[in-house]
Amino acid sequence: MLQKIQLKNEYKLIGTGLLLLILGYLFAFKRTFEAMEINHQLKSQLSRGADISLQPAYLDRKNRNLDKIIGRYKTDTVVFRDNTISAIAGIAEQGHVKLSEVPLQDPVLRSDKFIIQRLDFEGSFFDLLGSLSKLEQMPEIGIIRSVSFESRKVQIDTIVSKKIVMQAYFEVVKQ
User: Fold this and answer.
1) Strands (DSSP E) along 36-158, which ranges?
2) Contact yes or no for 174/114 (Cβ under 8 A)
3) What values do phi and psi take at 118, rounded to 5?
4) For 56-78, how does the pLDDT look when each residue is reduced to its tens digit (9 = 90+)?
5) How many Å from the N-terminal Cα to the C-terminal Cα in the chain?
6) pLDDT tens digits, residue range 24-38?
7) Burial of 79 by CB count in 10 Å (0-12 exposed, 13-18 middle, 19+ buried)?
8) Which stretch of DSSP H or E encloses residue 48?
9) What's the whole-model pTM score?
């Protein structure tokens, strides 16, 4: 039956063109137009909510988060040399590490906003790392600003031994 229908080449060309146009729209252009519409909707939503300063709940949440972060840095600088260092020494002792030196505060490492205090610890490398991890998690002692490890030779009489020293610098915000 289809063989009996005779179509001119022009009609076949027009039909094929329409078929390709419909297929092209379904597979390519339709998704592009939908994506453009979604993009336009999102841009309009973004422009409506762009002024975040008018949202007090956002500002309150941001201030609470900043206070939590600053709270980790703060400690009472008057009692830092007493209570905080004794707490740090207790954590070091639990980790089989010795708090070997608490030098005087260097005036170069001091400003009107913060103090940097150096503490030296001795022990095995893995014990030092474990104590360092516990110190980082301890609140209200300041933040560990930097850490360095050093191997030193110690000679007692004729016995030469090596010890590992960890120097930790704590940054404390003045209250």
Assistant:
1) 98-101, 114-123, 143-156
2) yes
3) -100, 135
4) 777 788 888 887 777 666 655 55
5) 96
6) 888 888 888 889 999
7) exposed
8) helix 30-48
9) 0.53
